[in-house]
Design brief:
Layout (H helix, E strand, L loop, with lengths): L1 H9 L4 H23 L2 H17 L5 H4 L5
Amino acid sequence: MFILGGLALAVKRTAPLGIIILAPFVAVIFFYHLLLGGSAAWATGWAGGLLLLAWHHRSAFVPLVTFDRS
């Protein structure tokens, strides 16, 4: 799944799909480094990177949170 998510990020059209695929893995990495690894800076870097990518592609996620009855 890492390779699929990374390849999806490499193509502009499928980058939001790559973010969605990689989000659970980044969450696990975040909590591992925060709680078990003792490196809050490394944990923040992983989560911050994903959040920056998600913010850059935020317009692609609008249909996930809106409901249109047309």
